[in-house]
Amino acid sequence: MRIAKSTLIDPARNEVYGIAAVALSLFVFAYSSRFGQISILAYYGVWGLLVLVDYRRALGNYLNHVWIFGFALFCFISAFWSPAFGLSLRTAIQYLTHIVCALIAMRTVSATTLTRGVIAGVAVVLIYSLLFGTYLYDVIDGSYSFVGAFSSKNQLGFYASLGLFFCYAAVMIFRMQGLWFMISGVVGLISAYSLLASQSATSVITTVAVIAACFGMQGFMIFTPRHRRIFFSAAVVLAIAAGVGALQAGALDAILGVFGKDTTLTGRTYLWQQGIAAAAANPYFGIGYQSYWVPGFSEAERLWQEFFITGRSGFHFHNTYIETMVETGLFGTLLLVSILLTTLGGHLKRLLTIGRTPESILAFGIVSLLVIRSFVEIDVINPYHVGSFLLYFAAGKLALGQSRSVRSPYYDPFVPDPNTPQTS
Questions:
Q1: Contact 232, 352 (CB under 8 A)
Q2: Cβ contact 171:126 at 8 Å
Q3: What's 147's DSSP letter?
């Protein structure tokens, strides 16, 4: 039996394959440490197959969008002055090829299919964690927490956050009906339970903030682009004023108290101080990508010992920018920040200047989630991580250009798009 290429490579016809590929990718990102190299090969296989089917369509041409690869290429270069050359080089190649897979997904998978694939993948990841998960002692929080099948409650919380956000996107942004409406409801409940079970303050706060931001942006869509920009500017000013007032009134301490934390963020501020001191030793180009947390490196060994990390792995500074400064210096950090800001700002610009653009609402929500989490986690600088996969998917969509299907000057966010087929 012959299978038409379009059923694998065409975003309008490859929904089944796309959902399966995205779901498999999320499972690999979550549990590759458990299932080993075979799972990584499966991840490369589902996206590499599309290159074999039609390499021009799958790979595209990014000569005019080098900014997408800027940070990854610098990570590769930094391996040549790294004290752990082999580790840095291998991980940099993994990160670069991981980005290529994300861009293949971006060119061959629609935003709707991505949403369904993430929902399916999160469902499998969370159910596996609920069935085979454990409780571990958190050296930072000083408490026992449910971590699922992960090694950190924050990773379980992150997948639960993605589940809630993408279920929101399925129902409120893409107006899915029938079977996928029911699936979204069930997965949303599983995600909410997992989020509460993880007791991850980071995940709870970012989930609420991002869903609220997306709901607000959808509200702006009822206006013409000109009025959107006016009302958005006013909303930003009011939000800043309200935020400053809330901080002065002690809202930060109150929020931290709800989650059992203090102003030191239960140890994170000490880690940040240590990271800043480490970055100062090599301020411009860093020590080398992925070369700080290496067994035998004196400072890493000291911090592992102080935080009782007996496995001597899976630890970091709990801040994307400090971690990046240590490994790649100021130059690498600026490259990473430029990708984050260009992607977030580009999709925000589309929301404020173009008619109906649900794809950019989804991308805006994804990048907003990653940016907020970047101050306490490192979701976007490692290979085989769902955060970096989604970031470069959103960046690639921005580089690819706005879909020609966007017609109307404005739309009602609470009415389904008549041009979008409502399949069950």
A1: yes
A2: no
A3: E
Cβ-count burial 223-255 (b if 16+ within 10 Å, e if not): bebeebbebbeeeeeeeeeeeeeeeeeeeeeee
Tokens 């080398």 sit on residue? 288
Distance of CA 243 to the CA centre of its chain: 25
Nearest to 203 by CA among 135, 155, 245: 155
Distance CA 21, CA 201 (A): 31
Q: What is the pTM of this model?
A: 0.91
Q: Which of 62, 63, 58 is nearest to 10 (CA)?
A: 58
DSSP 382: S
What is the CA angle 56-90-118, rounded to 5?
Answer: 55
- Block means of pLDDT (10 residues each) for the chain, length 424 residues? 73 93 97 94 96 89 85 97 96 97 95 97 97 80 80 92 97 94 97 92 91 92 88 89 79 66 68 94 95 91 86 85 97 97 94 86 96 94 97 93 44 44 43
Phi, psi of 143 (to 5 degrees): -145, 165
